[in-house]
Amino acid sequence: MKMKSIALYTLLTTSTLLSQTAEALFNKHCAGCHATILGVNEAGGKVTNIYGAPYAKDVIDKLKTETKTKEAFVGFIKDYINEPDKRKSLYGGKAIKKFGLMPSLKGAMTDSESSVLAEYLYSEYGKKPQITEEAVSPTKEEQSAQEKANEALFNKHCAGCHATILGVNEAGGKVTNIYGAPYAKDVIDKLKTETKTKEAFVDFIKDYINEPDKRKSLYGGKAIKKFGLMPSLKGAMTDSESSGLAEYLYHKYDK
């Protein structure tokens, strides 16, 4: 039993290290264009993110459809990042005219690193980390570090509108704070009432921050008219980060 536990731990550790290495390669060579939000487009009343190249998940989904197999997918990625060519492009001349032809990454990675990156894109990108019963429970230090990371995500992506006081309203003799969007605690309390369970709360948050829609809004047209529709955060966080943020929000005002 002890040997089995050691083998399982080694496998999980190796898998985690490979995933971290692959994610680091993606962040270094791909994320700046394919996953970093440069702005938003509100044309036609729909908020869409602006990237420096086609959004990573869309590219992956399209390439999987085109290549059919993992081997073909990995082969295409490795070939294309070394030798980009408009004739190989998945998106054609219109996208190249808009974004330009991708610069070659030839020499930027070893062959094994490009294989790790390509396999990560096929199998792991955007997925939740698998949690097993055998996984070691986080220490207090790890829990504290995770909470700080989630708080940093809140401060970066949410606090500017939902928790930063922009001024005060003294109408009617009552002083109320003015925010750029409904106050975070009010949103959380309302959403808890609507969703009933923590799982439903987390799912709603993750869905809404990626795909804001007036039909999903907790506050309806009056609030959207006042504050505007929230811009999408699609691509701004990994799936695990958005899960951590949603769980942090669920418990944020418990104390």
Question: For the record, what CATH class of the largest domain applies?
Answer: Mainly Alpha
Order of strands, main sheet, comes to 1-2
State the distance separating the first and last CA atoms. Answer: 42 Å
Report Rg.
Answer: 22 Å
User: What would CATH call the architecture of the largest domain?
Assistant: Orthogonal Bundle
Descriptive tags:
two-stranded antiparallel ribbon, 4 strands, 2 domains, Cytochrome Bc1 Complex, Chain D, domain 2, mainly alpha, 12 helices
Tell me about this structure.
The protein is mostly helical and 255 residues long. It has two domains: 106 residues, Cytochrome Bc1 Complex, Chain D, domain 2 (Orthogonal Bundle), CATH 1.10.760; 112 residues, Cytochrome Bc1 Complex, Chain D, domain 2 (Orthogonal Bundle). 57% of the residues lie in helices and 5% in strands. The chain has twelve helices and four strands. The strands form two sheets. Strands 1-2 form a two-stranded antiparallel ribbon. A two-stranded antiparallel ribbon has the order 3-4. Strand 3 and strand 4 form a beta hairpin. Helix 10 crosses helix 12. The longest helix has 28 residues. The N terminus is likely disordered.
